[in-house]
Amino acid sequence: MRIDWLFVAFIGLFYFGFTDNSRGPVYPHALNDLNISSALGSWLFALSSAAGLAVTLVSTFWLKKFSTITWMKISWPILALGFWFMGESFDQKSIIPLYIGSFFQGIGAGISTITMNLIVTQACDVLKRRRIFGALHGTYGIASLVAPVVYSTLYEKQIHWSQFFKYMAIVPFILLLVTWNIKGEKQVELPNTKLNTSRLLQILFGATLGLYVASEIVVSSRLVYFLTEGHGLAHKEASQFLSLFFLCLMGGRLSLAFFNISLKGESLLRASLLSTLFLLVLGMNGFHLAFSLSGFTMAVFFPCAMDCLSGWFPESLDAMMAGAMSGIGVGLVFMHISFGQFADLYGIKFAMGSALFFCSLSYVCLETFLQKTKTIRIRL
């Protein structure tokens, strides 16, 4: 096992997770300070999602150029550039640097997300890989939990969000110094597995994941905005609900590693979406704690979906995985753009209801996908 390679993956993920989940509590402050509408502000998220999707689609061309360790390190200064531009948007009183920063942040995030998983695959053997991946996702959960708390604390100490982003732009260069002597030795060799899976199944599974992720990100990135603007809560109180959401999300994912759940994969996926729908309905009807608790029911969906995918399509996993990641990218771009439009046209309360719509549609796509796999006699 290469502990030094894993160290690079873990600190890279923590930094990415921290900055990625800082944008939610920053969002309402940025809208007010720059005097922009929710529709325009949504491009802060949409551009980064689009850039990340583009990076994913062309990954076969750039991955083979350098080792995964090198690519992870390349992603850090790109992220730094993105956050510096975001901070500059307030200093220049212009939304343009915010968009530029969002674009660079998406590129850095796309590179980081792909390479961190490959590093884990290369750094440890098969017997330990599942636990290492569990710990990796747990690290993201910890970063997601810490980020809103740190930002709220700094905000109370009169640290402006523009300064916060510029402080975050310094961190990557510290990471580069700490990992300077850690070199990658292996080049990425992508498998040449032929597509033996229906294109329809790829689209259905990609839509299932993309819509689920869209519902999760609506809650994680807009909950503070929804509670402050839609229900008049103080920013600190709203941030506490968001922190609890991330705590539940982290706890739910870690529970998969520590407890043996007897439910079949497809049953667990159904249970996750249906229980999430129930909690989202409660949240929309004034029980704000339900939004936080939905983190626990959402938590199991993504890792369980990845596990099921490996068992259902062992001979075409790369093709199905590519479809899944593309579906997530498209879903996020659509969600960020549509949320802003809904918020401006119908209000933040109506826009928050898009989480219900995405989760419901994800369930429909999941059921259709499961029926199609049985129809073409794929062994589950």
What do you see in this structure?
- There is one protein chain.
- The chain is an all-alpha fold and 380 residues long.
- Helix content is 81%, strand content 0%.
- It has helices spanning 3-20, 23-34, 38-41, 43-57, 59-62, 68-91, 96-123, 126-156, 161-168, 171-178, 199-231, 235-258, 265-284, 289-299, 301-312, 317-346, 348-352, 354-375.
- Helix 11 (199-231) runs antiparallel to helix 18.
- The chain is globular and about 55 Å long.
- The two termini are 32 Å apart.
What layout of secondary structure does this protein have?
Blueprint: H1 3-20, H2 23-34, H3 38-41, H4 43-57, H5 59-62, H6 68-91, H7 96-123, H8 126-156, H9 161-168, H10 171-178, H11 199-231, H12 235-258, H13 265-284, H14 289-299, H15 301-312, H16 317-346, H17 348-352, H18 354-375
Number of helices: 18
The largest β sheet comes out as: none
Structural class: mainly alpha
Q: What shape does the CA trace take?
A: globular
Explain briefly what this protein structure is.
This protein is 81% helix and 0% strand. The protein is mainly α and 380 residues long.
Q: What are its keywords?
A:
18 helices; mainly alpha
